[in-house]
Design brief:
The protein is an all-alpha fold. It has seven helices and no strands.
Length: 188
């Protein structure tokens, strides 16, 4: 199965859009007026052949998703989901239909989550612990880099101009440093 295409927001955040504007120009919103309600943007209104209960369920299914995630290509899935939702509420839904409804709604929700994780809302506060954990990750990466370098130097042996005694002293120092780092981590 092919990897899903990135949204315009994801392309802008990664910098790919700026590098290949011509390649992604078809994804830019057109100058034509869009639907008034943000949740139906790109999706449109329910089809005219739907019954009143199905149209109400259509709007309910659309409201369950993040605004702007549903597109013209999703109209058939929303229509099927709204008709199955009406059957479920009436109590006439079969097990296979219920599974299909669950699959469709789960797909809409996962797409909504993916879109909201790309561009957080401006009102969303930043978690103060994020900065702390980022600093811990940097320290862990630096410690790993130093450990790898020390192991490499041990394997190489004495450097040019370095006596065996100096090299042995350096190896003992590196070993003590490693043991100290491990004991201080385990005491936390």
């Amino acid at each position: 199965m092919a990897r899903p295409r990135k949204t315009l927001e994801e392309l802008k955040l990664s910098g790919t859009f700026q590098q290949n504007k011509a390649r992604y120009s078809h994804m830019l919103p057109s100058a034509e007026p869009t639907a008034a309600h943000p949740a139906t943007e790109g999706l449109g209104e329910p089809p005219s052949h739907l019954k009143a209960a199905d149209k109400k369920a259509w709007h309910e299914v659309v409201a369950m998703t993040f605004p702007g995630t549903l597109e013209q290509k999703d109209r058939l899935l929303v229509e099927i989901a709204s008709q199955l939702l009406v059957k479920q509420r009436a109590g006439t839904i079969k097990v296979a239909e219920l599974k299909q409804l669950t699959t469709i709604l789960t797909g809409f929700q996962s797409r909504s989550r993916a879109t909201t994780s790309v561009a957080p809302t401006p009102n969303e506060s930043i978690d103060p612990s994020d900065e702390f954990f980022a600093q811990c990750d940097k320290e862990d990466a630096e410690e790993k880099r130093v450990r790898v370098e020390m192991e490499r130097r041990r394997n190489l042996g004495p450097q040019e101009g370095q006596t065996h005694a100096e090299f042995d002293r350096w190896c003992r120092w590196a070993t003590v440093r490693d043991e100290f780092a491990q004991s201080s981590k385990s005491s936390l």
